[in-house]
Amino acid sequence: MAEKSKDLPDTELLAAAIAARANAYVPYSGYHVGAALRGKNGKIYTGVNVENAAYPEGTCAEAAAIAAMVLDGEREIAEVAVAGPEGAIITPCGGCRQKLREFSRATVAVHSCDPTGCKQTVTIGDLLPHAFSPEHLS
Ligand SMILES: [Zn+2]
């Protein structure tokens, strides 16, 4: 398992989330978000938020990164980074917390970063305690 201590953020993962953020499609909110997931296989998958004219309909950065990971055949997340605007500590929305938990153990680290670096690290379990998870259906 490629899990790391939540005190030691993966700098390559943070950089990927920060870099992805520049490509967010956010003509309505102007709120750029980038996400990067480290799969158990070691690969990094990135995503950005994508809005449309029926705003607030759209896709979150985390959901886009999960879709890229699943497309590649990976099914387990080892670490997560989410990047927002400078000075902000952003965390995944409620729906994305459930989506992340689908592919993550509760102990997986979630780093909130801005363009200057990591601002906060918590776990999926911190963000979605007492989650209804795949283990309930197995
Ligand atoms: Zn979301």
TrEMBL record:
GO biological process per UniProt: nucleobase-containing small molecule metabolic process; pyrimidine-containing compound metabolic process
Gene Ontology cellular-component terms listed: cytosol
Binding site for substrate: N49, V50, E51, N52, A53, A54, Y55
Span of domain CMP/dCMP-type deaminase: 8-135
Molecular function, one GO term: zinc ion binding
UniProt cross-references to SUPFAM superfamilies, sorted A to Z: Cytidine deaminase-like
Gene3D superfamilies linked: Cytidine Deaminase, domain 2
Record-listed E.C. numbers: 3.5.4.5
Catalytic machinery residues: E62
PROSITE patterns: CYT_DCMP_DEAMINASES_1, CYT_DCMP_DEAMINASES_2
Keyword set, alphabetical order: Hydrolase, Metal-binding, Zinc
Annotated residues for binding of Zn(2+): C60, C93, C96
Catalytic activity: cytidine + H2O + H(+) = uridine + NH4(+); 2'-deoxycytidine + H2O + H(+) = 2'-deoxyuridine + NH4(+)
InterPro entries the record matches: APOBEC/CMP_deaminase_Zn-bd (IPR016192), CMP_dCMP_dom (IPR002125), Cyt/Deoxycyt_deaminase (IPR050202), Cyt_deam_tetra (IPR006262), Cytidine_deaminase-like (IPR016193)
Extent of the signal sequence: none
Cofactor(s) recorded in Swiss-Prot or TrEMBL: Zn(2+)
Function description: This enzyme scavenges exogenous and endogenous cytidine and 2'-deoxycytidine for UMP synthesis.
Family: Belongs to the cytidine and deoxycytidylate deaminase family.
Stated name of the protein: Cytidine deaminase
